[in-house]
Design a protein that fits this description.
rod-shaped; about 85% helix; about 0% strand; mainly alpha
Length: about 80
């Protein structure tokens, strides 16, 4: 009877460990996919911010050249 209980305990532990490993692998895959999506979204946002900054810089340079820059309020006189 002791051998049977011991065998049952070992079998249960083996199944438990195997089950946990699969769950961990699945969670890791999901986390990696989510991290990839987050990086992609952040890169798109950063790219848009760079484009906006470049457009603003271009506008400011054109206004400065044309003498219509009102950023400091000094050119309005």
């Amino acid at each position: 009877m002791k051998k049977f209980l011991l065998l049952f305990a070992v079998a249960s532990m083996s199944l438990s460990i195997y089950s946990c490993r699969e769950t961990t692998e699945e969670n890791m895959e999901e986390d990696m996919e989510q991290a990839g999506e987050n990086v992609e979204n952040e890169m798109e946002e950063a790219g848009q911010e760079v484009e906006d900054a470049a457009e603003n810089a271009e506008t400011e340079m054109e206004e400065e050249v044309e003498g219509t820059d009102d950023m400091n309020g000094d050119d309005d006189m």
